[in-house]
Amino acid sequence: MFGADPYQPPRWLAVVVIAAVLCGVLLGVWLFGAIT
Amino acid sequence: MGDVALYAIGIAGLAACLTLLFLGMRAVMDIGGFCAEGGPFEIRQRCPEGIPLIMVLGVFGLFGFGALMGWKGAVIGGVYAGLVLLAWPALFLSLGWNFLEYALWPPAPAQGIVWGWLIPGVLFLLMGGLPLLALLPDRRPSRAPESAELRRTRSRLVNAMAARAEQRGWRVETGGSTSGSAQADDLVSRLERLATLRLNGTLTELEFEQAKRALLDAETVG
Question: A36 vs B17: CB contact, 8 Å cut-off?
Fold first, then answer.
């Protein structure tokens, strides 16, 4: 599964992934506060 | 570029839903671990405000954003296709942590260890943690072990045999199909097999030496 695909996408995608996770967590915390 | 943007939205949405579920679960556990809303029932424990909406959003969003992430990840390719699977350990480890924390340090009226939360906590941690083990790099050799020692011994033997064959006038390096060369190749391959048997433990050092001697003697006589 992981690493089975020889195609390697660009490195900056990893930064996008990490940034998206952090933004998502912040968004979740904000949403929780806004709804409750 | 659109694929990457949608992929990022999928990841962020998934992370947001996991966060909502994590916080929503804690809010419910704070009031004893259960609550109810709606329906023609007399409700003993009402939910904190907004919690039903948060739980519904969290659960359905998990699947929706997860699907988006998996779809666009597959378009991008590489490791990004499988990254969505990490949502499983993320979900079970975070909720499992909630169970464990509230089992060991329960809120006000409860005291000591709450077994009803400890057991699902351990189960959740196992469900989330064990699949992560599958992601660890595979350390086992893929086929028959070809150790550095085996390679060194083999190349030493091959070199020694080549030198010996040369002394006897066989032409090893010529690449021609002379009988002398074939004979040397045969001897070398037999010695290689012996070395392999020695290294994988089939032969003891003494047996190996004897077999090697016998092979070389036979070759000298022949």
Answer: no
pLDDT of residue A25: 96
Q: How far is residue B25's CA from residue B51's CA, in Å, rounded to a whole number? A: 9
What residues of chain A lie within 8 A of the CB of B9, using their CB?
20
- Contact call for A16 and B23, based on CB within 8 A: no
Q: How much is the pTM?
A: 0.62
- The identity of residue B182, as a single letter, is A
Q: What is the mean pLDDT of residues B70-91?
A: 89
- Whether chain B has a CB inside 8 Å of the CB on A35: the answer is yes
The rounded distance, in Å, linking the Cα atoms of B133 and B96 is 17
Helices marked H in chain B — which ranges?
2-30, 51-76, 87-104, 115-133, 148-167, 179-199, 205-221
Residue B150 near residue B195 (C-beta atoms within 8 A) = yes
> In Å, how far is B4's CA from the nearest CA of chain A?
8
Give the residue extent of every domain in chain B: 2-133, 148-221
pLDDT of residue B174: 44
**Is A23's Cβ below 8 Å from some Cβ in B?**
yes
ipTM: 0.82
Check pLDDT > 90 for residue A21.
yes
- Tell me the nearest-neighbour CA distance from B50 into chain A, angstroms: 5
Segment B31-57, tens digit of pLDDT: 877 888 777 778 778 888 889 899 999
Which amino acid appears at position B34 of this protein? F
- A25/B19 Cβ within 8 A: yes
Residue A1 has pLDDT above 60, yes or no: no
